[in-house]
Give the backbone structure.
Amino acid sequence: MTQRPSLALIGPGRVGCAIGKRLHDAGYRWRALVGRQQETLRDAAAFIGIDPQRATTDLSRTIEADVILLAVQDDAVIALAHELASLGLKKTTTLVHFSGLLPASVMDTDPGAPTLSIHPLLSFADRATALVQLEGCPCAIESENAACTALGHKLVDAIGGRGFILPATAKTLYHLAASVASNFQITLAACARNLMTHCGFDQQQATELLRPLQQATAANLAHLSAEEALTGPIARGDVSTVAHHLLALATEVPDMLDLYRVLATHTLTLAQADQRLSAADAEALNTLLKQRPPDPQH
């Protein structure tokens, strides 16, 4: 049986800890765990299961590893790769980052250097939850090196993920899609919560009242397309309700009016794609969304 490559991990944060724990449990050997603070390193080593003697602030301890995992912020990846090269990085050592935006090639310190990008399509809100959610998680694999791509599939299998190939040229739009699906979903949840506070509820009450609706919507999306899962006044062609929404926003929450118009316009397009709207209702809604609402002062 071929021996698995030895690993070093730089960055014992939520991503590093969750992926590191999965790899440790899969039987990978560790050369080093590197971070900035000893207390954080001790905690991370305990979580992952790494020998605490391998936890260090000394970056040079990673050089003997076959694969170095760079679980750091996007802005730090390039500089860190060059710093590793300056420490005597072996030409056979594979550098792996977990950015959904950056291509693996940003870590190339020499032409043809073995570099790999793995990006789990997952929100790492905390390491313990992410550790569980990595099971079955889609993971983008990107590299210009065939051997690195093969390694990527092995690492993704080891963490319980489902690997798929992503071209480097598609990474920006891919990352944008992930941001819209995850980050903006949280932003919209906060917007809905804040609107509810105008009804006399505090933020906690508003959050608890809206949560079942949000969970039901997520459940619908789990087995229906976006077009099929869409409900609400725009999907029904309820022009008068949308008009009331616009007037209420103009009167009470004007800073959310532009956001509503943009989202409603895209929702209208979605409803039309499912052919649930009559042409007359679609045109009426389109016209309404382009109009300025009546001045609430008059």
Summary: The chain has two domains: 7-166, 173-290.
